Amino acid sequence: MSVSLREAVNGRFLIGAAVKSTQIADPALGSFIAHQFDTITAENDFKPARVQPRAGEFDFSVVDQFVDFAQANRLQLVGHTLLWHNQTPAFLFADDTGKPLPRDTGLQNLQHHIHSVAGHVRGRVLGWDVVNEAIDDSAPYLRDTVALRSIGDDYLEHAFRFAHEADPNAQLYYNDYSIESDSKLPKTLRLLKELKSAGAPIHGVGIQGHWTVSDTGVPERLDRAIRAFSQLGLKVMITELDIDVLPRNVKDRDAKSDPYVNGLPDAIAQAQADLYAAIFAVVLKHPGVVERVTFWCLHDGVSWLDNWPIRGRTNHPLLWDRNLSPKPAFDAVLHALRS
Ligand code: XIL
């Protein structure tokens, strides 16, 4: 088999990918995953809507497939996610009319969900993204979610406590996007400090890392954020790494919003490779602090960015193309890991 990221990283941190249940069920893809990576994250299958589709009714059938696959292939498993404003059933925090539930009921539902899910995989996951994307992009602090309206500002701290009760040895993370940016870093540091001073059992912070190829300021901002998080005594992970090559501010799919249906021009593939290399160079500057880098999806043909922010485009954000052939970005990451 071809050279692997896992061998090139060689234990300095963990390298992973978000994968789909159909991929781990496919023998060829399954061995590709096991060859390349140390850890996997379920792209969707641990999310609240998947595991608790109806109030009080849990479905762990796919979760168990992930646990079995990880064990059979000596992979570590990361849980994503216990609490988010998306892909989460409304009944957890709102009544039938959409009105937020009273605090006690919201807290009980949060506790029951987290105890059930994290308890089910207790001892079998390395860690959990306990809360996902709680910081607002433009408002001064927290995102206005139905969980917050029901429970109050301290809902995050309770989520961490419930997760720790359910699986005392699991690492617990706060996970969010753009938290290395000028606008979100200060709010993130405030949240992390508040969680720590409230005694919440938090081990680390996940920087999602959904970056775009034109954003050459990423490495510098990433470096600054890693330092700031580590000064709080927290570990850092890049949890959802990909580098978008398409315009994001688009409404319709047309030749302008979807320009690379026939392939990625060499110059852009090279710019993407350079940015990936620079990101990994920053990661290597922080041994013992950055504990994991996880790519969000396996190859360009199955990336969520083919369907976001609009459906059906041909994006090229990852290290392997649609035929699972390594791109210039793959070679650049290997080179960065070896130098
Ligand atoms: C995405 C999945 O990749 C898609 O398949 C799904 O339709 C929507 O969610 N931030 C996150 C991830 O934390 O859970 C999201 O995953 C991508 C953005």
Features:
339 residues, alpha/beta, eight-stranded parallel beta barrel, 12 helices
Protein architecture, described:
By secondary structure, the protein is of the alpha/beta class. It contains 12 helices and 9 strands. α10 packs parallel to α11. The chain is globular, with a radius of gyration of 19 Å. The model has no long low-confidence stretch (mean pLDDT 98). Bound molecules: (3S,4R)-3-hydroxy-2-oxopiperidin-4-yl beta-D-xylopyranoside. The site of (3S,4R)-3-hydroxy-2-oxopiperidin-4-yl beta-D-xylopyranoside has 6 residues, from loops.
Give the SSE layout.
Layout: H1 5-9, E1 14-19, H2 21-24, H3 27-36, E2 39-42, H4 48-51, H5 61-72, E3 76-83, H6 103-120, E4 127-132, H7 146-151, H8 155-166, E5 171-176, H9 185-197, E6 204-207, E7 210-212, H10 218-231, E8 235-244, H11 266-284, E9 290-295, H12 328-338
Parallel strand pairs: 1-2, 1-9, 2-3, 3-4, 4-5, 5-6, 6-8, 7-8, 8-9
Helix pairs in contact: 6-8, 10-11, 11-12
Residues 43-44, 132, 208, 240, 304 line the site of (3S,4R)-3-hydroxy-2-oxopiperidin-4-yl beta-D-xylopyranoside.
Summarize the structure.
The chain has helices at residues 5-9, 21-24, 27-36, 48-51, 61-72, 103-120, 146-151, 155-166, 185-197, 218-231, 266-284, 328-338; strands at 14-19, 39-42, 76-83, 127-132, 171-176, 204-207, 210-212, 235-244, 290-295. It has 339 residues and is α/β, with parallel strands linked by helices.
The helicity comes to: 25-40%
What bound compounds does this protein have?
A: (3S,4R)-3-hydroxy-2-oxopiperidin-4-yl beta-D-xylopyranoside
Average pLDDT across residues?
Answer: 98
Identify low-pLDDT runs. none
Strand content: 15-25%
Bulk shape: globular
Please tally the helical runs, counting DSSP H or I stretches of 4 or more residues: 12
The profile of the biggest β sheet is: 8 strands, parallel, barrel
Strand order in space, largest sheet? 1-2-3-4-5-6-8-9
**Which structural category fits the helices and strands?**
alpha/beta
Q: Calculate the terminal CA-CA distance, rounded to whole Å.
A: 23 Å
Output the helix-strand order. HEHHEHHEHEHHEHEEHEHEH
- Oligomer state equals single chain
Radius of gyration, taken over Cα atoms and rounded to an integer in Å: 19 Å
Strand element count: 9
